[in-house]
Design goal:
The chain has two domains: 43 residues; 204 residues, START domain (Alpha-D-Glucose-1,6-Bisphosphate, Chain A, domain 4), CATH 3.30.530. 38% of the residues lie in helices and 24% in strands. It contains eight helices and nine strands. The strands form two sheets. Strands 1-7-6-5-4-3-2 form a seven-stranded antiparallel beta sheet. Strands 8-9 form a two-stranded antiparallel ribbon. Helix 1 runs antiparallel to helix 2. The N terminus and C terminus are likely disordered.
Length: 280
């Protein structure tokens, strides 16, 4: 794509500010909110209080013309453009950048080898090559379980771009791209990673993905920092790379390993949303 986001946030590029309600929505919100407040005052007790609270919020939404829920469920301009270009009903994206003090070609060669990248991520159990352009990732999940996903390397039109996607037709399909450019003043290579997913369940799934992205964004940054440390110093300077009691994880939620059986073929893995928890 010609333009990539700095981060998955709503911007003023939209015609109306995100979360702006139409005149009809404002009228309905005012009417419903007022009715709830009146009924709550008549009813009294805990039930009445809850109705008053909900009604007051409805009146507030109608008066201000802004809805936080609608804002949370409105894709960013980049997400809307990506959905249109890839014929996705809806997409959710996040992005992070880092500058690595190494030549661009060296950084590109390292990132093109999934086994090397996976070895730096504490939530990755293993990376298995299934073919010249396909890898199977096994990742640790909570309560001692494991999940898997398949990534397929695809050629990119841009010479300094690497791109992968999960198999077509899987749940919570993902598109992952890394964009490389020379950093200013000869400081090395700027690396920008963009992760876009196609949530299931429409806008409900988008809302879930947006909530999760508050954590997965940190994990993406941690991954880029680990790559930077490895390339610049030859090691990742952390004592929490793979501790046994480390429950932090970041994964494309896939089919549980014990459900997938021994097969690692492209049809045996169902991928999902990027998740990370407990990042310090």
């Amino acid at each position: 794509m010609s333009e990539q986001p700095l981060i998955a946030t709503h911007t003023s590029q939209q015609i109306s500010p995100p979360g702006t309600m139409t005149s009809v929505e404002r009228g309905l919100s005012l009417a419903a909110g007022t009715a709830l407040v009146v009924n709550g005052l008549r009813r009294g007790g805990l039930g009445g209080f809850l109705q008053i609270f909900a009604g007051a919020y409805g009146v507030f939404r109608g008066a201000t013309g802004h809805c936080a829920l609608k804002q949370a469920l409105t894709p960013t301009p980049f997400e809307q453009r990506f959905s249109a270009e890839h014929d996705w009903p809806i997409s959710e994206a996040l992005s992070r950048s880092v500058t690595i003090s190494r030549p661009l070609e060296e950084v590109r060669e390292f990132l093109a080898q999934p086994e090397k990248v996976g070895a730096l991520l504490r939530w990755v159990e293993s990376v298995e090559a299934l073919g010249p352009d396909r890898t199977s990732w096994t990742v640790r999940a909570p309560v001692g379980r494991k999940v898997q996903w398949t990534l397929i390397s695809v050629p990119s039109e841009a010479p300094n771009e690497l791109q992968w996607h999960t198999p077509e037709g899987t749940r919570w399909q993902h598109d992952i791209s890394v964009h490389l450019s020379d950093a200013p003043a000869g400081r090395g290579t700027q690396v920008k990673a963009v992760v876009v997913c196609k949530p299931s369940l429409g806008k409900l799934g988008y809302g879930i993905a947006r909530a999760i992205s508050a954590f997965s964004d940190k994990a993406l940054l941690n991954a880029l920092q680990a790559i930077k440390q490895q390339m610049e110093t030859g090691e990742v300077t952390t004592s929490r790379l793979r501790p046994d009691d480390d429950n932090d994880f970041f994964y494309l939620h896939g089919q549980l390993e014990n459900e997938a059986g021994s097969s690692h073929g492209p049809d045996s893995v169902k991928t999902g949303v990027a998740v990370e928890r407990g990042v310090v």
